[in-house]
């Protein structure tokens, strides 16, 4: 087997970027400044700039520096809490309205990609959610039935034998299948959005970190690594990278790391042997594995939380590769060629949040299901600012909670992870 050096950056960044000129933000009062050049910020920028707002995007690193350039590219319509959980908490009508936002986000994303002509390897062959235990498969049946009853969704539950035709792994007991969802190349998607935002007239300044926000009588002043910037309205689109910039946000947003590897190239027929359906998969372990073929069909990608405590990327790559081998015992000998980690963001109720705090607009908290939702809510923030129709969402009235014990550092995560690990060990 040829030896490949391990690249400690996302596979999605290979050969893909939004051009960086060494520019600074112009000295003027912008209508709107957006902090964060991920899917949330870029979709907001596109909507605002196309409505004639003088819009500036400040990005601390490169476009897609955060989760938007680091995710699995799985494009779905589910929320993190199950529908049953939401029915219990909010009642059937509200739970259904929340879940319909997932469907709306998916449709919005596919339509935008199409309308903007973004070439990002979008494919919608459906997705599979393999069940790690027979009990999980039973739970999946109930969830599919409930989504059908309350939302009219068409999904299927397939048994081990049916799954074998789609996924060549002895590990799973069956799966639930979605038909119209799919995947994309997040690097190309982010770069395409940035290009689209600039085409609409937005200004994007990369490598420009916002360090301090000051509220003024007429808007905001922001101290950045490239000087001061003034604006009338401000959007915080920093999601899991809050960097302790503003206490209202870092007291409510829990950043959680998730890591991925991409293997070295294989013969595409070998990848097809392992995942004949070419679909993206997220399994039902509490510490879940999500995996898929690369868009060119030559690599396997897998993500998850490889360790409870902070661990070097090289070690994380070893653990994720070992997981891939346990899912695919017949996988040809291969190595990890790319490894990277990124932050997802959770609120305390695990649902997305959108609105305004201290005069600052925001959308955040999509967990690991944000590829579609972040852009959808980014556009919704813009519509709210423009006071245009279509701005309402079912997430509008959800309280964005904090906890007295939370200061922005999720010190309790290792404890939760130990609990999940035990549940996985005992098949709970
Ligand atoms: C490893 C991983 C796998 C994932 N897989 C999936 C998946 O398969 N499917 C799915 O639906 N979701 C997935 N997600 C979640 C999804 O990627 C996110 O929900 C989504 O990208 C969030 O977009 P965003 O724009 O809100 O945040 P981000 O993309 O994180 O953008 C925030 C940006 O703000 C910038 N920033 C922060 N502070 C400052 C500052 N002070 N000044 C200037 N800029 C600043 C950061 O550099 C960053 O670029 C995954 C996430 C990770 C990390």
Quickly list its features.
428 residues; alpha/beta; eight-stranded mixed sheet; 11 helices; 32% helix; globular; binds flavin-adenine dinucleotide
Describe the structure.
The chain is built from eleven helices and 18 strands. By secondary structure, it is α/β, with parallel strands linked by helices. It has one domain (11-418): FAD/NAD(P)-binding domain (3-Layer(bba) Sandwich), CATH 3.50.50.60. Strands 1, 2, 8, 9, 10, 11, 17 and 18 form an eight-stranded mixed beta sheet that branches. Helix 1 (39-50) packs parallel to helix 6 and helix 3 crosses helix 10 (371-386). The longest helix has 25 residues, at 92-116. The radius of gyration is 21 Å and the shape is globular. The two termini are 39 Å apart. The site of flavin-adenine dinucleotide has 43 residues, from helix 1, strand 12, strand 16 and helix 10. Residues 35-41, 58-61, 65-68, 70-74, 76, 209-210, 237-241, 243, 245, 258, 260, 290, 303, 342-344, 366, 368-371, 374 line the site of flavin-adenine dinucleotide.
